[in-house]
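no rush on this but wanted to send it before i forget. what follows is a protein written twice so to speak, once as letters and once as structure tokens for the fold. mainly i need to know what kind of three dimensional shape the backbone takes. thanks a lot i owe you, the record is right below.
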Amino acid sequence: MISGVDVRDRQVRARYTADTVTVYQAYPPEIAVPALAAGRFVAPFKRGRMTWIKPSFLWMMYRCGWASKPGQERVLAVEIRRSGFEWALAAAGLSHFDRSVYPDRAAWTRRVQTSPVRVQWDPERSLRLGPLPYRSLQVGLSGEAVDRYLDEWIVAITEVTGLAHAIRDRLVAGDDAGAAALLPTERAYPLPAEIGAVIGADPSGAADGGSP
């Protein structure tokens, strides 16, 4: 659920506190169960692969099919430090060339080749997972960014698979209002303007940095 947000096309929206921001990932049980037990990602999680984090709960639900797709049966809410999240965005290169961000394709190519972080803007999703006319942030971490994510940024990992199923069940029953009431509240994230420029974000419109 988006709360108190003047929604813009490329706007970072998330559940956040003064110190942390929540992102979502979906994994098979063999990765999710050890992560929940340890409070961090451990083997068989592989550091050498790019891992994507998503601040939008509904985009995560679209991607994992309400925790029903093979290999994405367990959905995790990962609370990370805002300082780490902002470091990732400041270091990012866009997945696709955007002339409003880069002076030319050569500059974009250089950025992508040297950055450990990818950012892309995909259509945000509705309660029933249809595309909306504004974008949702996806952040891909590799190399140094994965190491920082695993070793420095994670504050807590919580399973939200049951929540995903509860919302889906209400939708199947035709109770859209009941389903919407269960959604985590997401607000415009107060992203510093200089970081927003790196990822081609619109101004957040958020005035505070406090608790949800």
The first strand starts at residue 13 and ends at 16. Helices lie at 29-38, 57-64, 82-90, 105-114, 144-153, 161-172, 176-182, 193-199.
